[in-house]
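Exercise 3.2. Students should predict the tertiary structure of the chain below and write it as structure tokens, then compare their answer with the key that follows.

Predict this chain's 3D structure.
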Amino acid sequence: MVEPVSTSYRGVELWELPPNGQGIAALQILNILEGYDLAAMGFGSADHVHHFVEAKKLAFEDRAAFYADPAMATVPVAELISKEYAEGRRARLDPERAAKHVAPGNPALETGDTIYLCTADQAGNMVSLIQSNYRGMGSGMTPPGLGFILQDRGELFDLTPGRANSYAPGKRPFHTIIPAFLTREGKPWVAFGVMGGATQPQAHAQVVINLVDFGMNLQEAGDAPRILHSGSSQPTGERMTDGGEVSLERGFDYEVIRELIGRRHTVVWKVGPYGGYQAILRDLDTGVYYGASESRKDGQAAGW
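Answer key:
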């Protein structure tokens, strides 16, 4: 049994699984961005994209440095997702210039595919589930008589000794798969997830921002063009030195892209890495369910 962790964002609570996964990166991103008026910036503006990318860089530097198996390493989860910690990290965000490298914080005061599904019943119970064997078909090892292949996420250990996510016998590696929930006033509101490796916490945060700051409905929140930053430091030991790259889906104005380049972002165009979103929302007044499934993947929303 694993206890989920959460943060509040403008009156909405986002719930994620704790390390050894990466769910708290979404919480850290939202905590940093809560200090800015994103609604006033406007969806798709240069300020919106810039502040999101820079907040992601800060969160992912902590992801590289601290996220690991809490049974084998000290992972200061409560401090990392605290509002006080986010305030200190926020002070490092330059609103006019992209950071080429950032340092992790000090919270004591770095060709398979994933599936996601959510479901709900008439009693109001909701499930958020995600699963992946990681690289290709996983390890290729099938337990006799069981019919499934074991995962190979040991690849996500850091092989440099002495770090939080360094390999050790009996230790769970850092992993990326994270289902999510949103609650309002303690009541289940949205079960959702986004497939796609390191895209996941970035997309989780964007879905919440789209729903809360930009007033989108459940389908719009997933369909909206996504921001994806790559090249951050990693729990496997790699370190960002050049600021990474910002990928923007079609739908962002070219003048916004020009302004981002002027702030020293490296903007690139990619096809395919933006994830795949599924969600169910429960109307807290009527109990009516709404489902959403985006076109980037081969999912669907169904009711009966």
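Discussion points: Residues 293 and 300 are 5 Å apart (CA to CA). The chain has a mean pLDDT of 92.
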